[in-house]
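hey so i finally got around to running both of the ones u sent me last week. sorry it took forever, my laptop kept dying halfway thru and i had to restart like 3 times lol. anyway pasting them below in the order u listed, first the sequence line then the structure token line for each. didnt double check formatting much so if smth looks off just lmk and ill redo it

first one:
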Amino acid sequence: MITTIYKCDKCGNEQDTDEQFWTVGITARTKWHRDMNDIVKSIHVCRPCLNSFGLLAPMKRDEPTPEPPTVEELIREIIARCSDV
């Protein structure tokens, strides 16, 4: 039997399904050539970590919305974590 464990690249949380798991990344490509030569850096994150990037609204309406990080902060964190993966 084979068991697959999904582990968040940001917080290390583990789960046994890919539900509520997202790929967050940065892609660089030329304007004219969209092919396999694109530069892609990505990490896999759980829902709480996705929310920490400011990419999803909170689950409950009465839950306060945290101040989202700047785009520069997000890019720096994703690139730093891609180096660790």
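and the second one:
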Amino acid sequence: MSRKPVKTHTFKMGTVEVWQGTREGWVDDLNRMDVLEMGIPDGNSFKTLAVTVHEAMHAELIPDRYLDGERDAAEHIARFLWRLGYRKQEDCDE
């Protein structure tokens, strides 16, 4: 049985296979020569949104100083989106 990504998306770092259902978020670094991958957790919580934004920002090559630390820009953006009512839609393919 072969694994298949949920989706692919092209970020600044290249085309990334997005896997859902991981325990934590992660994205490959550019030193890999084969397929780039990203893992994001399942769910429809604020934490899931924040992790997804965080990993997408890594894939857009946003410097770590903006993402890892006390003032995580991804968490601030996710909080803004959450307050505006953004939630995951299970049947959305865009």
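quick thing i noticed on the 2nd:
The chain has one domain: 7-83.
anyway thats it, ttyl
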